[in-house]
Write a structure and sequence with these properties.
By secondary structure, the protein is α+β, with helices and mostly antiparallel strands. It is 49% helix and 15% strand. The protein contains 10 helices and 10 strands. The chain has helices spanning 17-44, 49-57, 77-88, 96-110, 113-125, 240-276, 288-316, 322-346, 357-365, 375-386, and strands at residues 130-133, 149-153, 156-167, 174-180, 190-196, 202-207, 218-229, 233-234, 278-279, 282-283. The strands form 3 sheets. Strands 1-4-5-8 form a 4-stranded mixed beta sheet, with helices on one face. Strands 2-3-7-6 form a 4-stranded antiparallel beta sheet, with no helix packed on it. It has a two-stranded antiparallel ribbon with strand order 9-10. Strand 2 and strand 3 (156-167) form a beta hairpin. Helix 4 runs antiparallel to helix 6 (240-276), helix 7 packs antiparallel against helix 8 (322-346) and helix 8 packs antiparallel against helix 9 (357-365).
């Protein structure tokens, strides 16, 4: 007999009744607070801070943070529910994923007790917004090339450098910053420091113009003699690269979780549209080509869904490997791009208009083959594993 807690999750066998109740709360918040305003935020190219505080009030920021730091102490499936519900409705503006799935895990895993007590409760409530400061003009996937310096000065580190493509950069109150504490040591000289963005010398550049993710603020950041107390170091000096490698699997799985939901939603939008759109005396859905293309996409997406859920289970059990995370990220994000491209074709000219979700999904999709590690890097990771002997 099936576990009575497992129901209404489409036979996925992952979510309990409590997860599904939480899903209703998240879906209601998305429908009432985000969907009606998202188009305006795309014009503004930023989401108001009040939305972050509302998200904190309803418990959809960092739900898996332990109660000792202001969270619910929930399992990571609650985070998955949030990612899925945002993705289904095409909500890309609020950078909740960066905040909850990247910044908070770094601080929770490697932060000092003083840092965790100071920052995490505020991230749960939305009083603080988190950003991840890894990428630089000359250092993206190759972390060894980071040039931002952190020099010890008494009880502080003093940081100087530049970051770019920083999601939540215009709003962030805390930025986990990758920097070199020992420039001669290569990757072993990289450290992570949680910078208070309100410190003197922390300067936000322009809000960068992007082809997609229009509502999400993305910035250049300049650090000019920014001071950070020693207790804001994550882990040990020179241990930043190891921390990043340990967290990349979660980041890449998160990308896949979002991408598979967008792909599923795009197919449903297309089924609904082609079932009503008339052409040559019949609906678009009546054409064999429509049915064949969508049938093939649907089969591929179901296969990717099963793979993604398998990886979620592996992650929850602490067993997901970096190579498995690279594989699911590569497969699902590539499929995401393919699905929205082929589905948009059925909408004809309407698919080129941004008031249609499929059009926004199309332009938003391109980043998924870059963010969290480019597709080529995923192939390199997988290839090295195949030939490691």
């Amino acid at each position: 007999m099936a576990d009575p807690l497992l129901r209404n999750d489409g036979g996925r066998g992952i979510f309990s009744a409590e997860h599904e109740q939480f899903r209703e709360t998240v879906a209601r918040f998305v429908d009432e607070e985000l969907v009606p305003n998202h188009h305006q935020w795309e014009k503004d190219e930023v989401v108001p801070r009040k939305i972050w505080k509302r998200a904190g009030e309803v418990g959809i920021l960092c739900p898996n943070i332990p109660e000792a730091y202001g969270g619910f102490g929930a399992d990571w499936l609650y985070n998955v529910v949030i990612i899925e519900e945002l993705a289904k409705k095409g909500i890309t503006g609020p950078g909740f994923m960066v905040h909850s799935e990247m910044v908070a895990p770094y601080i929770l895993a490697a932060g000092t007790e003083e840092l965790k007590q100071d920052v995490l409760p505020k991230m749960v409530t939305g009083e603080y917004i988190g950003a991840l400061g890894l990428t630089e003009p000359g250092a993206g996937s190759d972390v060894k090339e980071i040039r931002t310096r952190a020099v010890r000065d008494g009880d502080d580190y003093v940081l100087n450098g530049q970051k770019v493509y920083i999601s939540n950069g215009q709003l962030a109150d805390v930025m986990v910053c990758a920097c070199k504490t020992d420039p001669a040591a290569g990757a072993k000289g990289v450290s992570l420091i949680a910078v208070d963005t309100h410190q003197d010398g922390f300067k936000r550049g322009r809000n960068l113009e992007k082809i997609g993710l229009k509502a999400q603020d993305t910035s250049e950041i300049f650090l000019e003699d920014v001071r950070a107390p020693l207790h804001r170091l994550l882990g040990t000096e020179g241990g930043g690269f190891g921390i990043m490698m340990g967290k990349l699997a979660q980041e890449r799985l998160t990308q896949a979780v979002r991408s598979i939901c967008v792909a599923e939603a795009a197919i449903q939008w297309t089924v609904d549209y082609t079932s009503e759109r008339k052409m040559f005396g019949q609906t678009l859905a009546d054409f064999q080509n429509t049915q064949f293309v969508l049938a093939e996409l649907s089969a591929e997406v179901l296969s990717a869904r099963v793979f993604t859920d398998w990886c979620i289970k592996r992650f929850l059990a602490g067993e997901l490997t970096g190579v498995e995370a690279a594989k699911v990220k590569l497969v699902v994000t590539n499929l995401h791009v393919k699905v929205v491209d082929q589905c948009l074709q059925f909408f004809g000219g309407y698919g080129y208009m941004t008031e249609y979700p499929i059009a926004r999904a199309y332009v938003d999709a391109r980043i998924v083959r870059i963010a969290g590690g480019a597709a080529e890097v995923m192939k390199q990771i997988i290839g090295r594993d195949l030939f490691k002997k």
